[in-house]
Amino acid sequence: MKLAKQVISEELARFEIHFRESVKSRVALLDRIMQYIVKRKGKQLRPMFVLLSARLGGTINESTYRAASLVELLHTATLVHDDVVDDSLERRGFFSINALWKNKIAVLVGDYLLTKGLLLSLNNKDHRVLEILSEAVKLMSEGELLQMEKSRKLNLDESVYYEIINGKTASLLASACSVGACTTFDNEDDIEQMRLFGEKVGMAFQIKDDLFDYGSADVGKPTGNDIKEKKLTLPLIYTLNNCSPELRRKLIYIIKNENQEPEKVRFVIDAVAQAGGIRYATEKMFGYRDEALSILHRFPASEVRDALEELVRYTTDRNY
Ligand code: 2DE
Ligand code: MG
Ligand code: MG
Ligand code: MG
Q1: Which of 282, 274, 293 is nearest to 233 (CA)?
Q2: What is the pTM of this model?
Q3: Which PROSITE patterns does this entry report, sorted A to Z (predicted)?
């Protein structure tokens, strides 16, 4: 991410100050948790997408910084809630909030981050940004619930998988790019192109995340978690739809009944690799990456465009 960081280095530094300011609280417990969160910040891909999308259309301004902070606040809120929903005790290589403070506190911390973000935009009358991101939060919640509904039924439909990841992940990246663009572009069509660009990146991003669950790369998140949650993701969906009936029966039995046993989870992971599920999902991921790049290439060549391209490639090539 060298170029991206270099192109917006000053802006990123300003964003960080803005973000830290935006999570201050008078409640000591909350402040402690916020410090924990800020210290273990992630890759900040979403704010980078906001800032670079804005730069593509003009000069970054105060409303761009607010949009970037809102996106990062919402993203953080969804991760805190996601770890509760998924019973996940690790995040970014550290303990998750629910692991350290338990679910009750984690839920409230997520609510706090969500409303802090919404108020930030509302108080500054960034109504369009607020509308776009409120819609994204709605889509994310729906995506999560659709995922739960389908995992109960062990639904194997590939198209449903795309619908789920579109809601739970791509909607936020699409919004990140479109709100960034909103603050500088004046042509509606350009803003829509940037939204679409972000959506494709988001699809590739989640397929990569789902591949990590089957990989050995140390990404600061445990592998095999999705199987333990009966969450069927693309590598497994492909395998189940393309393997022998016996293997299919065996895999389904494990996922339904033996999903907490490490050797059985290992068996599923190995079977998926054997059956070409990893290869298939990787190809699909590259397909979305290429769609994203071809949308991006409709904009005139520039250093900012190169930086965005680098970020896109990073989402699919990263090892963590
Ligand atoms: C990541 O999926 C998707 C996260 C979306 C979470 C959204 C929620 C909706 P993963 P990892 C919980 C509601 C949020 C609000 C209202 C703040 O595959 O592998 O579980 O990183 O991600 O755990
Ligand atoms: Mg999760
Ligand atoms: Mg989840
Ligand atoms: Mg995951």
Answers
A1: 282
A2: 0.95
A3: POLYPRENYL_SYNTHASE_1 (PS00723), POLYPRENYL_SYNTHASE_2 (PS00444)
